[in-house]
Amino acid sequence: MKPATLRKWSVVHTWSSIACTLFMFILCATGLPLIFHDEIEALEGGHEVEKWDASTLVDYDTAVEAALAKHPGNVPLYLSFDVDRPVVNITSGPTADAAESQMAFNPIDLRDAKPASGGEEGGFMDLLLQIHTDLLLGDPGMYFLGFMGFLFALALVSGVVLYSPFAKKAGFAGVRKEKAARIRWLDWHNMIGGVTLAWALVVGLTGTINTLSEPITAWWRADALATLTKDGGETVAPYRTGMAGRAVANAMEAAPGMRPQFVAFPGAAFSSRDHYAVFLQGATPLTEKLLTPVMIDAQTGEVDGIGPMPWYMKGLLLAQPLHFGDYGGLIMKILWALLDIVTMVVLGSGLYLFSRRLAKPARTRAVTRLQSAGAA
């Protein structure tokens, strides 16, 4: 590669790295405990998976009515399911298109149709997740971090370009121990960066994809989801007792071997004006992240449309567990955590090298001034 081309890549690597380093430190630091969010929350909650007799549980519609009784005038928007206990979570609002700030979240125990404990938001892990997601700045912060993720990927690619000529001559992972400290640090920086390259690219790019979840989901709702229904109504179909349970049962019958993750009621963002949208998930750690929407007619309770999500939604849903490494068990989480720590070492060594690079011209100028003063 020509020297002029290498110099251009060096500029790209230096400034893309400097621009994103602080924010990547924040993301690595907040992401480390989030890798173990399930384990941490289990310790905080102090409960194990509960056992229950399914034949004694109340139906979903009874739970919906119990939640609505706490908020007279509200309509049901979403119904989701706890995995480790017989609890459904009912989200309601004053209207079907209510803003998130107007929504009420109610966990209902299916053993007695009474409010369940837990499920509240606002704990330490939720705060960490919000910082990791948007720096507590909402959508602007989320898109900004997405851009930082792009710069991080650019820094990794440019680093490979710069390291390749050296690796061809000295061999991969070569450390010139006889050289000055800055050169040794550079070799260690390059070696560790090369070892963690694939993981860092995966985490950086999946993090960037995750920041685009809202526009990607909006596109899917307006495009692929709309084709599953024959939504021609101008008003939102009102909730009728018995329809929630019927919608879930018919959806599961239409897609055997899957289980419900959540239900969107008519008029909610993930449904249509006259359909229940039942989102089913697979039964394995990886396929449970892939959802299949089943559209149920709000009047008849019959299946009106079913289909897998398009490739871009699958990419989004797979990016989320891949980013945190939470689909391969505890061993994979530990590996993700170790790589996260190593990445912080790479970021720190990069800052050290840049500071030494800035200090070198300053020392050169100081020596020049001293020599000039001595000559005078």
From TrEMBL:
Keywords: Membrane, Transmembrane, Transmembrane helix. InterPro entries: PepSY-ass_TM. It holds the Pfam family PepSY_TM. Signal peptide: none annotated. The chain crosses the membrane at residues 12-36, 142-167, 188-209, 334-355. This is Peptidase. It comes from Croceicoccus mobilis. The lineage of its organism: Bacteria, Pseudomonadati, Pseudomonadota, Alphaproteobacteria, Sphingomonadales.
